[in-house]
Amino acid sequence: MLNGDGNMSSKVTERALNLIKSMPRVALNNIKPLPHTAFKKKTDRRGDRKKKGRGDKGQGARGTWDPLGYEGRQNPLIDTSPRERYYAQYAVRRQYPPVSLLDLQRLIDLNRVNTSRPVDITSICNTGLFKFDISKNHFGVNLTDEGCDQFAAKINAEVQWTSELVIAAIEKNGGTITTRYYDPQSLAALYDPLAFFKKGHPIPKCKLPPQDALLYYSDPNNRGYLADPEKVLEAREKLAQKYGYKLPDLEGDPFKEMLLMRKDPLQIFFGLEPGWIVNLRDKSVLKPKDDDYLRYYHSAQ
Amino acid sequence: MFRTYSVLRNLHRQSRNLLNVQNERLATSLTSSYKSHVSIDKVYPNSNPDFLRKQSESPKVSSLEKFEGYIPIDQLEIATSKSSGPGGQHVNKVNSKVEMRFHLESADWIPAWIKPRLLEQEHGRVTKEGYLVVRSDMTRKQMLNQADCLNKLRNMIYKASELPKEPTAEEVELKEKRMAKAKDGILKSKRSRSLIKQNRSSPEF
């Protein structure tokens, strides 16, 4: 049997069509209703009686059950041990894996990190010795105070969390330290810049910190990147008086400019602006010219 | 397989070097152009961004009427040694104890009227040569012990500079009022007691 374009139709369709031809007409005697529309006969009449299947008197009949877990006047099992919220809000809490001053000094001594440039999270990741994972809520590095007595390098450090002792140790040696927030999208680019540039996405603009972190990063005592520089100056002097060292005079120092280098709050790479696309293969940088794009990449919203 | 791995590693290192800016001139322009709406000079327009600049030379020492808390570190002799107590190899080998000393009489950063009071209060800490000695091995870290020494020293000087406080007019008034009230209460009880005693004896006509 031939179909429209002149080919032989399949056996299945042929058989189906023949079946339909030979079947009787649809009538009331050869159709049945759909299962859900059929009249459901109520056969179980147990609950229809006087007590509705609830028995005689008591809590069962009156529906005044004790709360679940209640054990008479005995202390219920759930109250016997205290509540320890170890994992409360674990998915939301930010984590800052530690890198000690001792680790940092070792990296510097072994030339794994270039101290003539600012040392930030990317420099630490590029050593290959420290790995950070965004899926585990790693929001950057926490520089700890282990090895503060042995630390003897003059660096411009940029970390995400630190303590007062670390700030003192770094400033004692003539360096500077800044605490800086990066959102997860920016961190993805910072942890592995090479992989990010290969994707060909425009460099993201860094978001401002969330409400609970804004105070920390605006505090001059933490050397926050959003703090007032005048207050940072005062805080440096106060800390020098607290820990008993003299702030070195950097007037004629060739490193002074490097030590003062800071990224803009929306910037994530030195020398590269948000919105630019780095083309590694052609060794070029693509920059947007449209006003709307430029306005977007220069504003915090 | 190892050869491929080393080749890949070299490629990775080369690409990393590409990102490392070697040129000094280019490096200085790294901070230059990009300024967003929330750059620090816009958020704090009246602040000088150079927080590494030199401040005026020891401004606090000039007024020697009151101790402000400023201690010139270079006028103190700081020595480190090994701490005492338990701690195994760490306490045996590491110089975490800090000793700070200075000649009390010739210290120009302490107001003159405080010095004799300080000498009297801390006579146990002053040597025969007149050096005030402060020690600390409170923590495992030398920096923290040094901070502790300075803290102790500051507290000593503040304590020595405490003058007895004159009561204010309000305080005097309040005290007088309270004393008068207390006195009234005593007199009242005396009078009632006296009446009781009088009532025990027979009346005199």
UniProtKB/TrEMBL annotation, chain A:
Record-level GO BP terms: translation
Cited Pfam families: Ribosomal_L27A
GO cellular component: mitochondrial large ribosomal subunit
Top-level taxonomic group: Eukaryota
Region feature (Disordered): 31-77
Basic residues biased stretches: 38-54
Gene Ontology molecular function, alphabetical: structural constituent of ribosome
Keywords from the named record: Ribonucleoprotein, Ribosomal protein
Record domain Large ribosomal subunit protein uL15/eL18: where: 98-178
Record-linked InterPro entries: Ribosomal_uL15/eL18 (IPR021131), Ribosomal_uL15/eL18_sf (IPR036227), Ribosomal_uL15_bac-type (IPR005749)
Record family assignment: Belongs to the universal ribosomal protein uL15 family.
Protein name: Large ribosomal subunit protein uL15m
Taxonomic placement: Eukaryota, Metazoa, Spiralia, Lophotrochozoa, Mollusca
TrEMBL record, chain B:
Membership in a protein family: Belongs to the prokaryotic/mitochondrial release factor family. Mitochondrion-specific ribosomal protein mL62 subfamily.
Name of the featured protein: Large ribosomal subunit protein mL62
GO CC terms in record: mitochondrial large ribosomal subunit
SUPFAM superfamilies per UniProt: Peptidyl-tRNA hydrolase domain-like (SSF110916)
Ranges where the Prokaryotic-type class I peptide chain release factors domain occurs: 70-199
Chain spans, region Disordered: 179-205
Organism phylogeny: Eukaryota, Metazoa, Spiralia, Lophotrochozoa, Mollusca
GO BP annotations listed: mitochondrial translational termination
EC number in record: 3.1.1.29
Alphabetized InterPro entries for the sequence: Mito_Release_Factor_mL62, Pep_chain_release_fac_I
Enzyme class label: hydrolase
Organism: Elysia chlorotica (Eastern emerald elysia)
PANTHER family attached to this UniProt entry: LARGE RIBOSOMAL SUBUNIT PROTEIN ML62, PEPTIDE CHAIN RELEASE FACTOR
One Pfam family matching this protein: RF-1
A GO MF label: translation release factor activity, codon nonspecific
Domain of life: Eukaryota
Ranges annotated as biased composition (Polar residues): 195-205
